[in-house]
Design a protein that fits this description.
Oligomer: single chain
Number of helices: 15
Number of domains: 2
Order of helices and strands: HHHHHHHHHHHHHHH
């Protein structure tokens, strides 16, 4: 499922788009925010489907290859289609989801072929198929390797996805982490529970969180910019990286408008997001500015937190 951090990132991206355009419509922006989230989940399913497509390509390759040629390379005793996690993806529940959301297969069959042949060159692949059987742990770890070291690291594959869908380009890094987490959750240490992530943990609650975070940040933009300006006197706000300004405003919005979210959680979330989406110096900058802003807001009595463990 999309975590609260993922939802914050989607809102950050929507706010960035808002600030980049002159023709602004709050309703359209909120609609696009939810559409982008939905498309991110479609990308998640598409990436999982690639594991099946690579397994299918192996099957085609082996069917066309004379046995003596295979034996000349190494003994081929097992196949990707028998991998427990890939077999799970082939089952009805995943296929129904793929069908209902109209997730297309990869159009470029040559690209899948190239990815498979890249995989064939790996020692990890040779070691895997040279064994007649595998433990569930081995299957999960090998799927993790295929996705992390072959599929997601393939520049042609990344370029192809970005060309297929502009929404996917901005979500790719985030969704890659979702796929890896899905595979790892199927690990035998987790009782081998083969489950897909849901799009939302709680759809109504998560949608309300996203919409409120976006709209309140927009509505109080001037107010938050003034607060940031007062604590960045050595900087002109228009010279600070736009992403940093947006993250600071979102943090202020959460601190002031979401009484059930602890201040420390908000601070840590936006510092962590800045590590991945802004400049190398942003972490320290955002941390310092938010700390000062929180002191100011607490002194003025503007910070109100309710709920067990949140009253400060």
């Amino acid at each position: 499922m999309l975590s609260r951090r993922h939802l914050r990132i989607r809102v950050m991206q929507a706010l960035y788009a808002w600030h980049q355009t002159e023709e602004r419509s709050l309703k359209t922006s909120v609609d696009n925010l939810f559409k982008g989230t939905s498309r991110s989940y479609d990308l998640y399913l598409y990436l999982l489907q690639l594991l099946i497509e690579v397994a299918d390509e192996e099957e085609r390759y082996m069917a066309d290859l004379p046995p003596r040629m295979t034996a000349a390379e190494y003994e081929h005793l097992s196949y990707l289609k028998d991998n427990m996690f890939i077999d799970f993806l082939k089952k009805e529940s995943f296929q129904k989801l793929i069908s209902s959301r109209k997730i297309p297969p990869t159009k470029d069959t040559d690209l899948i072929r190239k990815v498979y042949h890249q995989l064939r060159q790996k020692e990890e692949y040779r070691n895997y198929v040279s064994k007649g059987s595998h433990t569930e742990r081995e299957d999960i770890e090998f799927c993790t390797f295929i996705f992390k070291d072959v599929i997601s690291s393939s520049e042609p594959m990344t370029n192809s996805m970005e060309e297929q869908n502009l929404w996917w380009a901005e979500a790719l890094e985030l969704v890659n982490s979702m796929v890896l987490k899905t595979i790892k959750v199927a690990h035998p240490d987790k009782k081998g529970a083969y489950e897909l992530m849901a799009e939302f943990r709680d759809e109504e609650e998560d949608r309300e969180f996203m919409e409120k975070l976006f709209t309140e940040t927009v509505h109080h933009d001037n107010e938050y910019e003034k607060l940031v300006s007062e604590r960045t006197k050595n900087w002109e706000v228009d010279r600070i990286a736009l992403i940093d300004v947006i993250l600071l405003k979102m943090a202020l919005c959460e601190i002031l408008n979401f009484p059930s979210i602890p201040v420390k959680v908000t601070i840590n979330e936006y510092i962590d997001i800045s590590k991945d989406y802004s400049t190398p110096k942003s972490k320290a900058f955002i941390n310092g500015v938010i700390d000062k802003l929180v002191i100011d807001l607490r002194e003025s009595g503007a910070v109100t937190k309710t709920g067990r463990g949140l009253i400060e």
